[in-house]
Amino acid sequence: MPHAFRRLRFAFSRPAVWCTAAVLALQLLLLAHALDSRAFPIPVMGKTGTTSDFRDALFVGSTYGPRGVTVAVRMGFDDNRALGEKETGGRTALPIFREIMLRVYQRQLVGPVPSFPREIEDGINEYLVRSAARRAVPDRPSSWPTVE
Asked: Distance from the CA of 34 to the CA of which of 26, 57, 98, 130 falls in 20 to 30 A?
């Protein structure tokens, strides 16, 4: 392993990575439908992005842990012209990310698909349940815990 990669490997503590993973996973509510199917059996976390006037569409995603794979996809023109109306990260870059991840794991270019730790999954599920309850009852009692 090259020296630079050994240094990067220890740049973040495991709790910091888990925390970041949880935060990113919570932001996936809108794109989850694109990756949540039998056709895409790989648990990932990621974030879409779209720049002003649809000039760039982005998706950065990763499988979990030190053996996970991270892929960044950026779609855009070198001359900074717009991609076109509604060409967002979720619509343009996410399908490319999906195809790359499927091929990486189907062709066994890396090890097996890593799972997220149960505590992260449980935390996400708890957040989703609370968030849904909060939306269902707009005038919630002040004693309810807030979900930020």
From this structure: 130
